[in-house]
């Protein structure tokens, strides 16, 4: 747990100066996607054969027996009435993959094969021809091939250690696309850019950058997320236009302050430097006080300068009534985390204190606990 907190302090210290700076320009393809250009999930039910006695126990997985019986009937093999199959070398599986945008018949896809029953291992098995269907129930690809189960095992001294998951495997280029998904890209000579996150300022900057590049009226913001862009009618000109559009540099607006807390591991991630307002917290044997250090600057005698009074945030941390650690200047959250690590606070202490700071209104950032 101490190691986790040290890593948290290191990460926050490294992120703070980066986040405090102004946002830099990014490619438009990193900020937004083109509407309709997306992957489609495919899945199918299949059978893996050729296992070395590690298949499903048919007494507990009757669907495996039913699948084999149906397959044999399709192949013209009729089993005698009342036959009890013992299929130790067969496993029922689900096959999954994603169909990329613009995929054409004949293109191959990598697939994942996952056991549905109680098979001990899929290693060495062969997936029989399996149709892969989309959400509309249509078959878009066919899968088949030898299942590869990665990882390693070690055995010695009467004990064995398995360092992998044996009930899931992959087949590289194991599926062949049989049907293409119809594309409406460029319909009515326009496309829609969809920002990865809703931000009105960023949408406005994207519209301004596109219109400066291609001419006024080319881009129009529909809301804080969707931007309509006029494109050429010719397919080759449209592709060239989109290539230039995606690689344009746009300076996104500064994101809202956000802190992600993982309650299970104690991890803390920030997207910018967050300062703390005046507050005082007592958590068990740990106390945190955020206040102001008043400094008065007086001009030399006889000069016309004015007296300047500044108040700098100051953080005091103490545990078990012992050593007090003072932080001056920015009083950023990164500095508080680092100081809490120095006095031996646990990740759970940090999570509780951040929640209390947010509740008290002293932490101006979105706090999300996962």
UniProtKB/TrEMBL annotation:
<dbReference type="InterPro" id="IPR001782">
    <property type="entry name" value="Flag_FlgI"/>
</dbReference>
<keyword id="KW-0282">Flagellum</keyword>
<feature type="signal peptide">
    <location>
        <begin position="1"/>
        <end position="25"/>
    </location>
</feature>
<dbReference type="Pfam" id="PF02119">
    <property type="entry name" value="FlgI"/>
</dbReference>
<comment type="subunit">
    <text>The basal body constitutes a major portion of the flagellar organelle and consists of four rings (L,P,S, and M) mounted on a central rod.</text>
</comment>
<keyword id="KW-0966">Cell projection</keyword>
<protein>
    <recommendedName>
        <fullName>Flagellar P-ring protein</fullName>
    </recommendedName>
</protein>
<dbReference type="GO" id="GO:0005198">
    <property type="term" value="F:structural molecule activity"/>
</dbReference>
<keyword id="KW-0975">Bacterial flagellum</keyword>
<keyword id="KW-0969">Cilium</keyword>
<dbReference type="GO" id="GO:0030288">
    <property type="term" value="C:outer membrane-bounded periplasmic space"/>
</dbReference>
<comment type="function">
    <text>Assembles around the rod to form the L-ring and probably protects the motor/basal body from shearing forces during rotation.</text>
</comment>
<dbReference type="GO" id="GO:0071973">
    <property type="term" value="P:bacterial-type flagellum-dependent cell motility"/>
</dbReference>
<dbReference type="GO" id="GO:0009428">
    <property type="term" value="C:bacterial-type flagellum basal body, distal rod, P ring"/>
</dbReference>
<comment type="similarity">
    <text>Belongs to the FlgI family.</text>
</comment>
<keyword id="KW-0732">Signal</keyword>
